[in-house]
Amino acid sequence: MSDSFELYLTCPKGLEGLLAEEARSLGLEEVREHTSAIRGSADMETAYRLCLWSRLANRVLLVVQRFAMKNADDLYDGVHAVDWQDHLAADGTLAVEFSGHGSGIDNTHFGALKVKDAIVDKLRNRDGQRPSVDKLDPDLRVHLRLDRGEAILSIDLSGHSLHQRGYRLQQGAAPLKENLAAAVLIRAGWPRIAAEGGALADPMCGVGTFLVEAAMIAADIAPNLKRERWGFSAWQGHVPAVWRKVRDEAQLRAEAGLARPPLWIRGYEADPRLIQPGRNNVERAGLGDWVKIYQGEVASFEPRPDQNQKGLVISNPPYGERLGDEASLLYLYQNLGERLRQACLGWEAAVFTGAPELGKRMGIRSHKQYAFWNGALPCKLLLFKVQPDQFVTAERRPSDQQADSMRSGQAVAPEAARLSEGAQMFANRLQKNLKQLGKWARREQVDCYRLYDADMPEYALAVDLYQEWVHVQEYAAPRSVDPEKAQARLLDALAAIPQALGVDPQRVVLKRRERQGGTRQYERQATEGRFQEVSEGGVKLLVNLTDYLDTGLFLDHRPMRLRIQREAAGKRFLNLFCYTATATVHAAKGGARSTTSVDLSKTYLDWARRNLALNGFSERNRLEQSDVMAWLEAAQDSYDLIFIDPPTFSNSKRMEGVFDVQRDHVRLIDLAMARLAPGGVLYFSNNFRKFLLDEHLLERYTVEEISAQTLDPDFARNSRIHRAWRLQLR
User: Are 218 and 265 in contact (CB under 8 A)?
Assistant: First the structure.
């Protein structure tokens, strides 16, 4: 075998340049970059050193053959021509990985099978011994990469991917791979800062990946020094003496590094469940004297190393994958920026994020940005110098006086923090609406109402107040609107809301309102399980602002619920598509003789049961889990007061067929009117904007549209929020 080999090193997309620099420093020559890989030439000692010391590579592949191929036969022949006895014993185990396509190979599994067959056939001896396949821990892992008609056949010297250092047996929900974390640290300048004796702090450290990688860099520890099994361990070409030399050299360097006074490296994590797993990872890496992890919130983050030491603050905040994450994430990034400005003056900072637009809201100018990929997700590394001349603004939380004013429905002046021009216009509109609607709300003792409903077309939001909470719904932007502009306006609005209304940013909840398929608007969006009591017309109701698209209380139906309460005395009340049965609670409050509420959802009927119990109305109030149409067809009882507020569309798995309010409302109303007692009243409402009531219903029943009577001042600006009719038997 030659003294020099062609090596191929793979890496995450975007790290090619960094890996090339690292590989050159470790002895790789003639380095060339490819997508997610580099290649070069080196002797065996350098190959071993790359395996042991590369902080950025995934795999180190030793190329054994390159050959042209036009079809599957060429593939077999090219692999079969290699002297495989130089690489694998006849009774050994192997695994084959195949990438690329073309030359008649369109299926990677088929390609891998051809490679395996060629190797096995070459090594099958006279006694019938042949290698077997072991995909998990083979003696030899073979790679074949097909690239534009050329096959590149390699042996994987790494074994398991080099990012698997062995210390991280416990991890959080969205961990960075170790080699990506190392790349971020290198780009952030940590090797330089560590060499100068600087400190490192991570305010959202998770299970400590940044901390461990930083400590290994600072202590000169080879990232895979503790790895016991390598891809070359059972390879026939392995040179143990050379490997021992490289490993012993790394061991001595690690011992010398750990003997130095440890740098100040600290992590803080808000989730108490991650503290011990993080500490366990640190101990497994042998860095307990260098790295400490504490429980702590971003809002109270303040690194305090000895002797007024400066250094690097590094963080990988959440990116936001669920709809509605923008609100909490905006305030998280603002909090992080505030803590940097107030507690980290003179430090450097690095924020690795998949949501770089949120990084712009931190109040500090980023002096440098790098593009990365975290798997398939494009990300940015934002670098900051925490100096006053880099500060964009000094944002402040709302004062107690502002919060008191908001709770009493009074408009308040914004704090000194500067908003963008558009955000300030939005804040001014919120304050104007609050001043006008607040008087009405106080007079009518309404503590949940709509404050804003896309009053300014460029800010297509609905903003509802639920006591001291703000529930924001973003209407999906038309396709003609640039998504980046729409996102920027949303973030402007979210920045303005706490200041304009004097609320704690943690009490702003965002949802995205768009056309939902099937029952998605009723599906769980989160699992916080946080219910709060609100009052309306003398009853108490439970709302949940976080877990579902709707909150459990349709604010626009407030006048209808109060009308039902006024008319319910002594009557038998039927509530169809009852949802959380808020109208039923009002009917019971109004003195209904009995109530029956029908809905298909067990979740919402449980919620309805809690609403009734909260008001002491568990008696004489029946809850029925059923498809409304099927229930009406089987029903026998009569009712004096009926309320129907159906969905626009439903295709629940529990019902037969699909419900469409425009198509099916005639049959629905006819079935319900058959259950209406003489002299009784049926109220029918829906919020389908294009809904047309069938004219034949006017011939059969006495019908009066009462839409205008069912809109309070907070919905007067949007007369199409719903339509409502009063029906009686002729």
Answer: yes
Encode pLDDT of 678-726 as tens digits. 999 999 999 999 999 999 999 999 999 999 999 999 999 888 899 999 9
Beta pairing class for 649-650 and 659-660: antiparallel
C-alpha–C-alpha distance, residues 631 and 608, integer Å: 18
Can you say whether residue 86 is alpha, beta or left, with left for phi > 0 and alpha for psi between -120 and 50 degrees?
alpha
pLDDT tens digit sequence for 286-311: 999 999 999 999 989 999 888 788 99
pTM listed for this prediction? 0.75
4 close to 16: Cβ distance less than 8 angstroms: no
Residues paired with 350 in a beta bridge:
314, 383
Which tokens belong to 661?
A: 């309010």
Query: Per-residue DSSP letters for 352-365?
Result: EES-HHHHTTSSB-
Binning the chain into helix, strand and coil, the percentages to the nearest 5 are 35, 25, 40
Fold agreement between 178-221+259-390 and 532-729: yes
Q: Among candidates 293, 295, 291, 268, which has minimal Cα distance to 203?
A: 268
The rounded distance, in Å, linking the Cα atoms of 364 and 37 is 34
Residues in CB range of 108: below 8 A, 6 or more apart: 98, 99, 100, 101
Residues 131, 88 contacting (CB under 8 angstroms): yes
pLDDT of residue 513: 67
Query: If you ran DSSP here, which 8-state letter would residue 376 be given?
Result: T
Kindly report which listed range (105-114, 306-315, 317-326, 443-452) carries the lowest average pLDDT score. Answer: 317-326
Cα–Cα distance for residue pair 200/198, rounded to 1 Å: 7
- Residue 192: what are its φ and ψ, rounded to 5°? -65, -45
What are the residue ranges of helices labelled H in 42-138? Answer: 44-53, 72-80, 108-123
Fold classification of 532-729 is: Rossmann fold (3.40.50)
Q: 44-62 burial by CB neighbour count: b if 16+ within 10 A, else e?
A: bebbbbbbbbbbbbbbbbb
CA–CA separation, 452 and 79 (whole Å): 69
CA distance linking residue 536 with residue 590, whole number of Å: 13
Closest CA to 617 of 640, 586, 638: 586
Helices (H) and strands (E) in the chain, counts: 20, 30
Q: In the CATH hierarchy, which fold is given to the domain comprising 5-156?
A: VC0802-like (3.30.2130)
User: What span, in angstroms and rounded, lies between the C-alpha atoms of 609 and 541?
Assistant: 11
Residue written as token pair 């509605």: 324
Instruction: Report the candidate in 621, 526, 627, 545 with the shortest Cα–Cα distance to residue 582.
Output: 621
User: Positive or negative, the Cα torsion across 672, 678, 680, 685?
Assistant: positive
What are all long-range contacts of 558-564, with beta carbons under 8 Å and residues at least 24 apart?
558/446, 558/712, 559/709, 559/710, 559/711, 559/712, 560/643, 560/683, 560/685, 560/710, 560/724, 561/536, 561/537, 561/586, 562/536, 562/537, 562/586, 563/683, 563/709, 563/710, 564/590, 564/641, 564/643, 564/683
What CATH number matches the domain at 178-221+259-390, 3.40.50.150, 3.40.30.10, 3.40.710.10, 3.20.20.140?
3.40.50.150
Strand order of the β-sheet with 150-156 is 29-34, 37-42, 5-10, 59-68, 150-156, 140-147, 93-99, 132-133
Domain ranges of the chain: 5-156, 178-221+259-390, 400-514, 532-729
List beta partners, residue 370: 381
Distance CA 626, CA 451 (A): 35
Mean pLDDT of 416-435: 87
pLDDT at 479: 78
Helix axes 582-589, 558-567, angle to 10 degrees: 30
Closest of 116, 62, 97 to residue 236, by C-alpha: 62
Q: What is the CATH number of domain 400-514?
A: 3.30.750.80
Alpha helices in 228-325 (DSSP H): 240-259, 275-284
